[in-house]
UniProtKB/TrEMBL annotation, chain A:
Residues 1-13 have a biased composition (Basic and acidic residues). It holds the Pfam family Response_reg. The modification 4-aspartylphosphate is found at residue 114. Keywords: Nucleus, Phosphoprotein, Transcription, Transcription regulation, Two-component regulatory system. The keyword Acetylation does not apply. Residues 14-29, 204-227 have a biased composition (Low complexity). The keyword Transcription applies. InterPro entries: ARR-like (IPR045279), CheY-like_superfamily (IPR011006), Sig_transdc_resp-reg_receiver (IPR001789). Residues 1-30, 194-251 are annotated as: Disordered. Residues 33-180 form the Response regulatory domain. SUPFAM superfamilies: CheY-like. It comes from the Eukaryota. The lineage of its organism: Eukaryota, Viridiplantae, Streptophyta, Embryophyta, Tracheophyta. This is Two-component response regulator ARR9 isoform 1.
UniProtKB/TrEMBL annotation, chain B:
Keywords: Acetylation, Cytokinin signaling pathway, Cytoplasm, Nucleus, Phosphoprotein, Two-component regulatory system. It comes from the Eukaryota. It is found in: Cytoplasm, Cytosol; Nucleus. InterPro entries: AHP1-5/YPD1, HPT_dom_sf, Sig_transdc_His_kin_Hpt_dom. GO terms for molecular function: histidine phosphotransfer kinase activity; protein histidine kinase binding. This is Histidine-containing phosphotransfer protein. Functions as a two-component phosphorelay mediators between cytokinin sensor histidine kinases and response regulators (B-type ARRs). Plays an important role in propagating cytokinin signal transduction. One of its GO terms (biological process) is cytokinin-activated signaling pathway. CDD domains: HPT. Histidine-containing phosphotransfer domain (HPt) contains an active histidine that mediates the phosphotransfer. GO terms for cellular component: cytoplasm; cytosol; nucleus.
């Protein structure tokens, strides 16, 4: 990264062009990736369009199970977790995970899920995600029905937002705020991973375990803290918004 | 045919669909999402809606023909139809679905059968209207004009 800071103009033109192209490609790759879950083909198409128009990358799946599969969380296996208590279970999970090549470098910045789905509901999916190594990914729940008890249940379950269908472009402004927040999380995780790579397995699991226990202690305060955090962050995001799309981000 | 005349026809026809509540502002949202990269977006979504609705109406007819009606199943289908009609802005279809769901909750067979007829009727009306509108659009494009917003 230091190379690119000052002397681009001094370098030969070809190299300049190459570097600019690389920067551009990196910027494109840095677009937020949203996992959209909805059993309705029409709503999937609509959501995909809304997100693409807003410059997000989208992956659509039609059920909670497919979402879990995509995230590597099927069958209660957590392919991203290094907090397995017994080494034997981690080795068995890693053998089944090596078959799903999606896992490597998989980046999901936001999950948007319908509430009412046959089989696993959006709420069930929310709880599964929040109980996994993907717990820091913001989850937004959508529903065509305005049921206050449902809304508070989802928010208490860890959802960032509850959106009423049908969705409109204006709803996506709210989502931008959560993506900025998740950026901070994913940067931190990447740093942790970088540190983890240099250690052997035992040290790695120890680091993560202590992280998790800290999080657990914080959980009871979370719902209170989140409200004030949410407001603070959304005002920051509003200021940043004009610059958002051009930002090159390391995820 | 005169492009300007066609364009006026389209604008008036579209306005009438909103005025008569066949369509609501959600349909406008769909149109706003369409761009040069995906110029058939609205037609694609609406076609999906037609396919999906016809499937659901068939399922509903079957479910209501049963000796012992499974109202939960009927309600699930109506819920889907309500959702998809809402997503494309087919307001009159959506409204009938709301009434339909109430009858399901009451396990009122007569009410449900009546609503099934009503929703079939409203669906076929909006389908015809949308197809007419798309034809007008095609005519304008074929005559070298552009679709007025």
């Amino acid at each position: 990264m230091e190379l690119k800071s000052d002397n681009i103009q001094d370098r030969p033109e070809q190299q300049q062009q190459q570097m600019q192209q690389q920067q551009q490609e990196q910027q494109e790759q840095q677009h937020f990736h949203v996992l959209a879950v909805d059993d309705s083909v029409i709503d999937r198409k609509l959501l995909e369009k809304l997100l693409k128009v807003s410059s997000y990358q989208v992956t659509c799946v039609d059920s909670g199970d497919k979402a879990l599969e995509y995230l590597g969380l099927l069958n209660n296996l957590d392919c991203h977790s290094t907090t397995s208590s017994s080494s034997s279970s981690s080795s068995s999970s890693s053998s089944s995970c090596s078959q799903s090549s999606q896992q490597e470098g998989l980046k999901v910045n936001l999950i948007m899920t319908d509430f009412c789905m046959p089989g696993m509901s959006g709420y069930d999916l929310l709880k599964r995600v929040k109980g996994s190594s993907w717990k820091d990914v913001p989850v937004v729940v959508m529903s065509s029905e305005n049921v206050p008890s449902r809304i508070s249940m989802c928010l208490e379950g860890g959802a960032e937002e509850f959106l009423l269908k049908p969705l409109q472009l204006s709803d996506l402004d709210k989502i931008q705020a959560y993506l900025v927040k998740s950026l901070d999380h994913s940067c931190t995780n990447m740093d942790k991973d970088l540190i983890g790579d240099n250690n052997d397995n035992d040290d790695n699991s120890n680091n993560n375990y202590s992280e998790d226990s800290n999080n657990d202690n914080g959980n009871s305060n979370n719902s209170n803290n989140n409200f004030s955090k949410r407001k603070a962050i959304s005002s920051e995001a509003t200021e940043r918004r004009p610059k958002m799309k051009g930002v090159a981000v390391i995820v | 045919m005169d492009v300007v005349k066609l364009q006026k026809q389209l604008v008036d026809y579209r306005a009438s669909l909103y005025h008569e509540a066949f369509l609501d502002e959600q349909f406008t949202q769909l149109q706003e999402l369409q761009d040069e990269n995906n110029p058939d977006f609205v037609v694609e979504v609406v076609s999906l809606f037609f396919e999906d609705s016809e499937r659901l109406l068939n399922e509903l007819a079957k479910a209501l023909e049963q000796q012992s009606i499974d109202f939960k199943r009927v309600d699930a289908h109506v819920h889907q139809l309500k959702g998809s009609s809402s997503s494309i802005g087919a307001q009159r279809v959506q409204k009938v679905c709301i009434t339909f769901r109430n009858y399901c909750e009451e396990q009122n067979v007569e009410g449900c059968l009546k609503c099934l007829q009503q929703v079939k009727h409203e669906y076929s009306l909006v389908k015809t209207k949308l197809e007419t509108m798309f034809k007008l659009q095609q005519q304008i494009l074929a005559a070298g004009g552009s679709i007025p917003m």
